[in-house]
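Notes taken during the Thursday session

The instructor put the following on the board and asked us to keep it in front of us for the whole hour. The protein is NADPH-dependent FMN reductase. We were told not to look anything up and to reason only from what is written here. First, the residues (207 in total):
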Amino acid sequence: MKFVAIVGTNSERSTNRKLLQFMQQHFASKATIEILEIKDLPAFDEPETDEIPESILRFSKKIEAADAVIIATPEYDHTIPAVLKSVLEWLSFSTRPLIDKPVMIVGCSLGALGTSRAQAHLRQILDAPELKARVMPGNEFFLGHSAQVFDENNELTNQAKLTELEECFLEFCDFVPLVEKLVKKNPEKTLARKKFSWELANKGGKN
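Then, after some discussion, the predicted structure tokens were revealed:
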């Protein structure tokens, strides 16, 4: 399987990036994971025309081509970073590549609580009509005190959290083909979701 993993921050020293790099190597026998950065993408500003920035289109195409998506988010003020929300707004405004795409959410925090609030908020966002990702239910992985749990080789040294991550990832690998099978049963529904319009919805129209 081919996954893309989104670093949900523009921080150069984020442990969320370290976590995805670790997952890329540790799970190489299970899936090919390409890490996508968002730090150089433009902030969302609804264009007056339908013209979408090339960098956003390239980013979107990588998601479209993948079997599934992993998103690693830190927690800022009980929610996700503005830069990640901006990217999601671009994706919902443009080609909507996350619709019916399997998504796994992970997160790192320097504090003790991990990213539970941010992950819960991200799940809400990904359920918006223009995103409608298939987020794996009952599966959460957050890593607290993340500055202390990676060694100089970027290996995750907390054995309990490593076991938890392995269990979550293997469940996600089982979840991906189930979603694919479900979506293939009704491809028209996915197409309809990609054409969703709030204007038509507010008028009671069909999409």
